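In this section we walk through a basic example: taking a raw amino acid sequence and producing a predicted 3D structure, encoded as discrete structure tokens. The instruction is simple. Fold the sequence below.
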Amino acid sequence: MRALIQRVSNASVTVEGKVIGEIGPGLLILICAMAGDTAEQGTKLAAKISKLRIFKDNDGKMNRSLIDTGGEALVVSQFTLAADTSRGNRPGFSTAAPPHEGNRLYEDFAQDLRDLGITVATGQFGADMSVVLTNDGPVTIWMDDQA
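The resulting token sequence is shown next.
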């Protein structure tokens, strides 16, 4: 699985003019299931993200995790993270998991975070979504399940 993580002061996702998910301080996690990914890889990635020390401590150093801060997570499916731009000008997405599998892995990933005690809001798989965020820092980190 592949994720783009942004530390945020707040974030929301809207579908057809209706806010379907929003959080306060925490992480916006754009997530993409890649072809051949497993639920176990998603579980491992969720655990790693939950413990990633990217929040400031009392000395202003990035030394606290999402779990440490009690922050929330907004998880949004983002198949374009699988973009292959190596040939031509039009990205290819053949390395993304098929939609039915991608949706299952996306839902499993969000549940894995919930199982770790994190409050999770989500987008809507496959929908045309509008995501609004206030990036805190800014802190933006790219992760693959191998990380």
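Looking at the output, two observations stand out. The mean pLDDT is 96. The CA atoms of residues 29 and 82 lie 15 Å apart. In the next section we compare this with other chains.
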